[in-house]
Amino acid sequence: MEANMGSLMGCTSSTPSFLIHLNRQNGAIFTRRCMGHLCLRTAVSACGSSSDAAMVIDKKRVGKDIITEIRTEVSRMKESISMVPGLAVLLIGDTIISEPYSVPCEFVGIRSFVVRLPEGTTEEKALESVSGFNDDPCVHGILVEFRLQSHMDEHKILNAVSIEKDINGFNPLNIGLLAMRGREPFFLPRTPKACIELLHRNNIEIRGKTAVVIGRSNSFGMPVALLLQREDATVTIIHSKTKNPEDITRQADIIISAVGKPNMVRGSWIKPGAVIIDVGISFVPDQYARYGFRCVGDVFYEEACEVASAITTDVGDPGLLRIAMFLSNTLTSAKRIHNFL
Amino acid sequence: MEANMGSLMGCTSSTPSFLIHLNRQNGAIFTRRCMGHLCLRTAVSACGSSSDAAMVIDKKRVGKDIITEIRTEVSRMKESISMVPGLAVLLIGDTIISEPYSVPCEFVGIRSFVVRLPEGTTEEKALESVSGFNDDPCVHGILVEFRLQSHMDEHKILNAVSIEKDINGFNPLNIGLLAMRGREPFFLPRTPKACIELLHRNNIEIRGKTAVVIGRSNSFGMPVALLLQREDATVTIIHSKTKNPEDITRQADIIISAVGKPNMVRGSWIKPGAVIIDVGISFVPDQYARYGFRCVGDVFYEEACEVASAITTDVGDPGLLRIAMFLSNTLTSAKRIHNFL
């Protein structure tokens, strides 16, 4: 896995730049604009050709690191208590597309269980499958995915998943526990958790920093804001009713965006030295692109690179980090259920 | 009740000012500093003697208005479906102090049920009482109050209250539903709900405004921030790890504080024309006061009066508004349980 890390990594698909491959053991790179403790010290790549450009936070590397750690933990668990975590996936309304979890599960030693329910399956059948996973002691994490058009009550199926195995973390009780001080949620939702991992594993301090989250969705904006607050950031959520959002982002040490508005966050919106995590993805027409469109983020990447100290974008993201989060939550669940420290 | 409204009302206990008694039917008072739509149009009193001072939001009047409305609704419910809401109060560890809910319940027509468990009662006995209230169809709201030293597991007792009757609204599931867009909590926690009522009933627009909440407690700061966000404000929570909180409060159209730090928010922290809701209470030594101390809020009241457009403070608050919120939540619960619109 490490052997791949020295390869050419694109800052965007059109402006490749060489990955500076260093880790904590080998040394540290500091960004040129250091904002308090907001420094990047681990694997980063230069964004664009300017010597004053932001460093690119290497999501792929963080994903690989986490997967390696999970593999080690699963192995330790197997050796110690002869148990391995199990991830169950219920695919509803899809009989063609293969599911993406089996291979990574196998790689880290997690057992995977897949049930495919074709279009037209009754709600009762789906609930039966969920109930079976809930009761199965070999299953520690459950994912339900609705593909194609399903005529089922999705809420009803999702609510049937036992909260102790609901690794998506979107159950309202889990969200409530995430919001409350002194309480612990069962799971951290995957994309918000991935953002925090990116900051932590690049030694970007969150405590005492001002953070702006753009977007307030249940699946990302709201939980990532709650997570940042648990990490002692001072958090503001910007949304569609916010007036002059650029005045607010310009005060922020950390900007996290997930609204799907192409290039909304311009360079002028960003405080020099800020850290940017762009989770938004949009497709815009481009007559020069192969298929007539290209993929852009919420943040105007080229402009942001000139102002921010560190940046990462979802554009072109292989999703490795998100899969790592599912595996991590499955492991967390198995350790909790079997009281394995 | 209305007859009392023309009485002298203290802006603080030391600087009384005459209540300007107007309501929506009679006319409207506009504050001199109007910030966009942030205008006070209903019952307010001048704060201090300066002609340029903030208007005092009249909490007592809002409390009375709500209680009057509840009384009317309870009466309508009784006439329509021959049912009245019921509020059950479990007092643990106190056999002396009388409970404060019976009289207001009686006034609005809500039945009240009080169980007192003296110091030394077993946890099982308390759980038995909660279970009885959960199952009683005449009970729609349950409050559990721990007084004096109790050796019980308070979390265990509180968690036993059915979420459909838990009018405190602090159950994690309820908080999760409050945090999520498109979901509805069973109840709004009382003090956050009271703050929103104060803003609504004084025609102070929340949508699109910047709001700062000082303090992130589970019982107030966090839920009031979630509520403001549901009302489409752009919300920032300030807490003990926030650097330069005054820079953040100075941007805010609405400041709500509940940290218990005497006079922390100075006049220089406040944007001209902002609206202030101060829920914090502290006691500070005062050799000239009758008992050697006096009660102050988080906000330096006299300074804030010179800058804000509207202000309200908990200092000297009779708690009428909070009791109104309990009664309101009990009514909400009864209407939901009996499907009474």
Q: Can you describe what's shown?
A:
Chains A, B: InterPro entries: Aminoacid_DH-like_N_sf, NAD(P)-bd_dom_sf, THF_DH/CycHdrlase, THF_DH/CycHdrlase_cat_dom, THF_DH/CycHdrlase_NAD-bd_dom. Chains A, B: This is Methenyltetrahydrofolate cyclohydrolase. Chains A, B: Catalyzes the oxidation of 5,10-methylenetetrahydrofolate to 5,10-methenyltetrahydrofolate and then the hydrolysis of 5,10-methenyltetrahydrofolate to 10-formyltetrahydrofolate. Chains A, B: Homodimer. The first copy, chain A, is of the alpha/beta class and 341 residues long. Chain A has two domains: 195 residues, 3-Layer(aba) Sandwich (Rossmann fold); 80 residues, Rossmann fold (3-Layer(aba) Sandwich), CATH 3.40.50.10860. Helices cover 32% and strands 19% of the residues of chain A. Chain A has a nine-stranded mixed beta sheet with strand order 1-2-3-4-14-11-10-8-9, with helices on both faces. A three-stranded parallel beta sheet of chain A has the order 6-5-7, with helices on both faces. In chain A, strands 12-13 form a two-stranded antiparallel sheet. In chain A, helix 2 links the parallel strand 5 and strand 6. The first copy, chain A, is globular. The relative contact order of chain A is 0.16. The N terminus of chain A is likely disordered. At the A-B interface, helix 5, helix 7 and strand 9 of A face helix 5, helix 7 and strand 9 of B.
